[in-house]
Design brief:
Radius of gyration: 16 Å
Structural class: alpha/beta
Number of strands: 7
Order of helices and strands: EHEHEEEHEEH
Mean pLDDT: 90
CATH class: Alpha Beta
Low-confidence stretches: 165-171
Number of domains: 1
CATH topology: Nitrilase/N-carbamoyl-D-aminoacid amidohydrolase
Largest sheet: 5 strands, mixed
Shape: globular
Length: 171
């Protein structure tokens, strides 16, 4: 590099979403990806965007497989923009649910990571009744030469999960 700092152009999607129609939410995501593909490298959705915030979360899916990952991977393939999307994740045990986000990007597109929200929003009986906090350190990946790492909503206020030591910024 010639001394120039790498640039990552980010678009933030703020749009209504349905707690009963994940397919409708994915269609909204596809339209946003088509719109922002020429001006952004990464499109970020709100917390629980694909499955909606509220409701019963009967639409939770595993992070590593399922129609949400397939749909987002196809959107990334079609438009060439990486996507960080929020959804309700069902863990490997088939019952535990997490508020999660996954990043899909690269060529060919693939899931680069999944992060589970570590700190549920305590004033919300909805979150405590339906989700389990994640325990893993937020992953760090490089996208377009820029190191990025996710936090979900209340994680920003409280900090990393107990016992997590963050990597130094210069590593």
């Amino acid at each position: 590099m010639n001394g120039a700092m790498p640039t990552l152009r980010v678009a933030l999607l703020q749009a209504p979403c349905s707690t009963e129609e994940p397919a409708q939410n994915l269609a909204t995501l596809a339209r946003a990806a088509a719109h922002y593909a020429a001006s952004a490298d990464l499109l970020i959705t709100p917390e629980l965007f694909v499955t909606g915030y509220g409701g019963t979360h009967t639409h939770a899916q595993p992070a590593a497989c399922g129609s949400y990952l397939d749909a987002v991977t196809e959107i990334v393939r079609a438009h060439g923009i990486s996507i960080l999307y929020g959804f309700a994740e069902v863990a490997d045990d088939g019952t535990t649910q997490h508020i999660s986000c996954s990043l899909v990007g690269g060529s060919p597109p693939q899931r680069l990571f999944t992060y589970r929200k570590a700190h549920l929003w305590t004033p919300s009986p909805f979150e405590a009744a339906n989700f389990t906090p994640g325990r893993d350190e937020p992953p760090v990946v490089t996208l377009k030469g820029v190191r990025i790492s996710p936090l979900i909503c209340f994680d920003v206020e409280v900090g990393p999960p107990a016992g997590v030591v963050h990597q130094q910024a210069n590593r």
